[in-house]
Structures are given as structure tokens and as C-alpha cells.
């Protein structure tokens, strides 16, 4: 049985999703709805009942037939906005990564501190250039550390091998084989190969090159020159010798011995020496002198042999062994020259400072090294000696690019001139310019001009003096073999026997550094 007159308070379902109506309104609505459904039931007998009186439906009552669900039409999204939004998103993403990279780069640049190990020049001399660089590069700091020459090569190489080495450091031109694993190649953005070769002197093409790369930049050039006691030459009416034969004759004529006629003879004391040559114990820079003699005599220093090598060695020893214009009883050659008791002396440019410090009143001048006779028809050119220092960059440095940029700055003509001028305030001159385009500035300068005039034809090898490369350094090891050769000849052995032993020693040392014998260069 269907109850149409159920109490009003229970007519409304307890759980519904329909909107809530008042109790009276909802009961009337459902009574009408149930009545309609009963009338639709099939095969049901209908009892005659009076037509029910349906109360009027209030205006707020839902329609007796539920309305069809409304379909809300989606508004069409403007398609033209999509590409704009995508572009904006891409720009934002790209901006994020680019900004992150820029910020990272800025942070990195702020922390760049370059450690620079220097030799010879005090911090006071180089600091003005560093200050100017830091002023134009506010994110870079250069920490210059002046190093003592004592055990410098070993100290530097040990630091580099342990990953504790400086970013920039100074090496001797003959040290390249010992440091080839530690040296960063000069970037093309700093100096291209052609620019490098046109800027610096020809000797750098072999001295500072590893494979196809240059590995150091020379701020200076130096070598060997002839120091002359002007008073001794003037009093004797002599001119400066330009050949070795002239030097030998002048040295003999100018030597003063403790004899009745004043001549220098074996066994007699030398009062004024002619030239510091012939021995290896008290002749400073004897290595450079002997090397240049052999090079001018077309000797292959990598493997000396034959008459040319024997003649060069024999000639060097004749000044003490035969002419007796120098002997091993005399003080060091530098000291003897500064005292005014030596007519001719060989040394690098920096020895000028030593002589002036020892004797500021000494009148002396500096001239190019004598030459062997040249065959001008064959186009032979003078051969001079190169021994200099250059700036390299640590191959393991995390700031290689910044380091090379600073080295480029240092080697610019403007800064080299500032460097030279600042140094000249405290001594006779600064480091002789390593750039060829600055040669004209000092080619006629007292003391230093001779080194500049010789630089275009200067050569070097691993027999350089005063490089301080230590007991295991290439120059020290080779010097020992050459010194033995000089001593053997002075003690009576033949130059031929001495050269044979020397050649074996040279091969042993060079093989240690992977250096093969090469043919000698023509004059």
C-alpha cells in the first residue's frame, strides 16, 4: 500500500543532492509526484476515489517535470595567445639559465686571485703595474711573491708537482725541457704564433717552444757581452777588440805580471789580468763563453765532436795554459774586474749592477762579444749568446685564462716601458726589453745597448751560467761535464780525448730529458 498522507516532517528524503525546500512545500510536491507515478503503473486496478484536491503550487516550487540539464557552452580560448605564452615561458627559462651563468661567472671572477712567483725584481718595482691592472680589472687580484734564487728551480717544481704551485712563474730560457709538463701553452688569443714570432727575438722559437706551442713570454732579453776597462785601454792606446784574435792579442799586451819587464809568464804573479778566460773555477760565466766559442765554430753542442769542437775547447784554455793572462790563483772575475785589475771581462747585463756596487768610480763600457772570422760571401752572420728569463703559466691553474691575460698585459710595450723606467730609478737600467719593437729605445743606451744589438742573432743552449737550477738541473749537470773537459786540457790531456768523454756525458744528460741530437745551425 502506498501512503499518500505520511506525516509532513518525513516526506523529505534524508540524503539528497536537490536544493532544500520548506517542509510544507516539499510534501505537496511529492504527493503530486507519487500520484502521477501510480497512475502510470500498468494493469493496476484503480479504486474509485474522489479526485484529490491539490493545493496551489507556490511560485518558487520546481516544475512538475524536471527540466533538462543545461549544457554550459565552453568559451573558445583565443588561440593567438598560446604562442605568446609559450614565448614568454621560453624567455623566462632561458633568462633563468643565462642569469644563473652570468651570476656564477661574476662570482667566479670576484674570487680570482693570481699568485705570481717572481725573480730579480722586488715587489716595489712591479707593484705599480699590478695596481693599475687591478684598477681596470676589479675582480682580479695579483699576489706577487718575490722569490730567492737559492734552490728556486727545485722549490718551484716541487710546488707544481704537488698542485700547490703559483699561477704565474718565471723560468730560465733553458728550463723548458724540465718544465714542459707544467707549462700551459700560450693561447692564440694572447699571442698567435705569427704575432709571437714577430714580437720576440728569434731565439725564442727554439728556447720557449714545446711541440707546436709557445709556452712562455719573455719580458726581457739578455746574454753575454764584453766589459772593457776604459782606463786600461786608453792608457795603452788600444781599441775594443771585435774578433777573438784581436782579443787574445790585446789581452796579452795589457796583462801586467810581477816581473822585471812586466810581462805575464807562467809561474809569475799576475798584477793586472788581460782577460778572464781559460779556467772554470774562478771565471764567472765561463760556460757562456765556451758555448759561444763552440757555436761560432759551428759545433753541434748536442753532440760535439771533430776538429771544430777540439779547436774551440783548446782555444778557451790557451788564455791560462799558454798566454798566462789569467790563472786560478786570482779572485773571481767579477771582483777582479771591479777592482780595476782586469782589462776584459764577460758577463750578462745584470753584472753591471754588481760592478757598479763594488766600485762606483770604475770607468768601463760594455760591447758586443768578439766574433770568429765571417764569410760574408756565404752570407754568414754573427752568432751571439742568449740567456734570459720568461713568464710561464701553470698548466694546472684553474685561472689559466686570467693568468695569460695578465701576462699579456705585462708584456705590452706600454707596461714594459713603465717597468724599465721604474727599475731605472733604483739602478742603472731596467731589464733589457724582450720585444723587438722596443729595441730602438735603448739600442744606444750605455751598458745595455750591446745586449740589444746582439739579440737578433743570439742563440742559447743548456750551458747557461747562474740559472740556479740546482744539482740535478740540466745546466748544472752539463756544466760538470764541460768543466771536466776544461780541467783535463789544462792538466795536459789532449782536447780530442776530453771531447770524447764530454760527448758521452752530454748524451747521457740530454737523453734524461728526451732531447735528441740535432744538426748544428749554420751561421
From TrEMBL:
Protein name per its UniProtKB record: Extracellular solute-binding protein family 1
Record organism: Candidatus Amesbacteria bacterium GW2011_GWA2_42_12
Transmembrane segments: 77-98
Record keywords, A-Z: Membrane, Transmembrane, Transmembrane helix
PANTHER family in the cross-refs: ARABINOSE-BINDING PROTEIN-RELATED
High-level lineage: Bacteria, Candidatus Amesiibacteriota
Record Pfam families: SBP_bac_8
Keyword Transport (UniProt): no
Keyword Membrane applies: yes
InterPro entries the record matches: Bact_solute-bd_prot1, SBP
Amino acid at each position: 500500500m502506498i501512503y499518500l498522507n505520511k506525516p509532513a516532517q518525513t516526506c523529505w528524503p534524508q540524503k539528497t543532492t536537490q536544493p532544500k525546500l520548506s517542509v510544507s512545500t516539499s510534501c505537496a510536491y511529492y504527493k503530486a509526484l507519487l500520484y502521477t507515478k501510480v497512475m502510470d503503473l500498468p494493469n493496476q486496478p484503480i479504486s474509485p476515489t474522489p479526485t484529490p484536491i491539490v493545493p496551489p503550487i507556490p511560485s518558487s516550487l520546481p516544475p512538475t517535470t524536471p527540466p533538462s540539464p543545461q549544457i554550459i557552452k565552453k568559451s573558445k580560448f583565443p588561440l593567438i595567445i598560446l604562442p605568446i605564452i609559450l614565448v614568454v615561458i621560453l624567455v623566462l627559462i632561458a633568462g633563468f639559465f643565462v642569469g644563473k651563468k652570468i651570476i656564477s661567472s661574476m662570482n667566479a671572477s670576484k674570487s680570482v686571485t693570481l699568485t705570481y712567483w717572481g725573480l730579480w725584481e722586488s715587489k716595489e718595482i712591479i707593484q705599480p703595474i699590478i695596481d693599475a691592472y687591478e684598477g681596470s680589472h676589479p675582480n682580479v687580484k695579483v699576489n706577487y711573491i718575490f722569490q730567492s734564487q737559492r734552490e728556486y728551480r727545485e722549490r718551484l717544481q716541487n710546488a707544481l708537482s704537488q698542485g700547490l704551485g703559483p699561477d704565474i712563474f718565471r723560468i730560465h730560457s733553458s728550463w723548458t725541457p724540465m718544465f714542459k709538463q707544467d707549462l700551459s701553452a700560450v693561447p692564440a688569443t694572447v699571442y698567435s704564433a705569427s704575432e709571437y714570432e714577430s714580437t720576440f727575438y728569434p731565439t725564442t722559437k727554439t728556447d720557449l717552444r714545446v711541440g707546436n706551442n709557445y709556452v712562455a713570454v719573455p719580458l726581457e732579453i739578455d746574454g753575454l757581452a764584453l766589459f772593457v776597462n776604459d782606463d786600461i785601454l786608453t792608457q795603452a792606446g788600444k781599441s775594443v777588440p771585435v774578433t777573438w784574435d784581436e782579443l787574445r792579442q790585446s789581452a796579452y799586451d795589457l796583462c801586467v805580471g810581477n816581473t822585471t819587464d812586466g810581462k805575464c809568464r807562467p809561474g809569475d804573479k799576475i798584477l793586472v789580468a788581460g782577460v778572464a778566460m781559460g779556467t772554470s773555477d774562478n771565471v764567472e760565466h765561463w760556460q757562456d763563453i765556451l758555448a759561444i766559442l763552440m757555436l761560432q765554430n759551428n759545433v753541434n753542442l748536442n753532440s760535439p765532436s771533430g776538429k771544430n769542437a777540439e779547436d774551440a775547447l783548446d782555444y778557451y784554455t790557451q788564455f791560462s795554459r799558454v798566454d798566462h793572462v789569467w790563472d786560478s790563483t786570482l779572485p773571481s772575475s767579477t771582483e777582479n774586474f771591479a777592482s780595476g785589475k782586469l782589462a776584459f771581462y764577460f758577463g750578462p747585463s745584470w753584472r753591471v749592477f754588481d760592478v757598479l756596487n763594488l766600485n762606483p768610480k770604475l770607468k768601463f763600457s760594455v760591447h758586443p762579444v768578439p766574433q770568429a772570422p765571417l764569410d760574408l760571401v756565404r752570407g754568414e752572420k754573427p752568432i751571439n749568446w742568449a740567456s734570459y728569463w720568461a713568464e710561464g703559466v701553470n698548466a694546472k691553474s684553474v685561472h689559466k685564462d686570467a693568468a695569460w691575460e695578465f701576462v699579456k698585459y705585462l708584456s705590452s710595450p706600454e707596461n714594459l716601458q713603465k717597468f724599465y723606467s721604474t727599475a731605472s730609478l733604483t739602478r742603472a737600467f731596467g731589464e733589457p726589453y724582450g720585444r723587438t719593437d722596443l729595441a730602438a729605445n735603448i739600442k744606444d743606451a750605455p751598458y745595455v745597448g750591446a745586449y740589444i744589438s746582439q739579440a737578433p742573432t743570439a742563440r742559447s743552449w743548456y750551458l747557461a751560467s747562474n740559472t740556479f737550477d740546482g744539482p740535478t738541473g740540466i745546466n748544472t749537470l752539463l756544466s760538470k761535464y764541460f768543466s771536466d773537459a776544461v780541467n783535463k786540457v789544462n792538466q795536459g790531456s789532449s782536447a780530442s780525448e776530453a771531447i770524447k768523454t764530454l760527448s758521452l756525458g752530454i748524451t747521457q744528460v740530454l737523453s734524461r730529458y728526451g732531447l735528441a741530437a740535432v744538426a748544428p745551425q749554420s751561421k
